[in-house]
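note to self: dont lose this again. the chain is below, predicted strucutre after it. 180 aa total, dont forget to put it in the shared folder this time
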Amino acid sequence: MVNHELKTWRSYFHAIADGTKTFEIRRDDRGFRVGDTLRLRETEYGSGNYTGREERRVITQILRHEEGLGLIDGFAILSVVRINMRRPALSQGAADLLARLRSIRSRDEWFPFINAGFKMVHAETLKERGFIEMSEQLGMPAVRILWSPSNRCDECDNGIRADWDYCAWCGSHLVNKAGN
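---
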């Protein structure tokens, strides 16, 4: 992975900082690769002076001219995600449901959470974060965990799936148990 320091005009910087802009269009002269880190430094238009504000992002996808998507030769669109973006803490009910699911021995076992006193909103929160999948089993809503409780991102501590290359929450590159 390579770290790239890039000037970013104030108007574009604000859109990146508040999360409404999740891409960069850049001259493709740095050998950008998926997994590289961008250090985006807010710059005043015209003078080029740094304001002191910066954001860090990781590249998750790159579109180039060769792919026939109408890009000008020599430019690339970089999809980026925030580094170290922490999710809000789980509610107590969602955390209790997750703890209960982690105690179930088999990953294939469905848990009828409503009968156990948990609410639908708790399951929906866990589903949104990618911890579980939901289904109807024997006419009742049920959930099961998608991975073992030990699969956590080292950067943000959110749950991750074993088949992910990048954390969906913070964008960190994930190293599998083989060290790749």
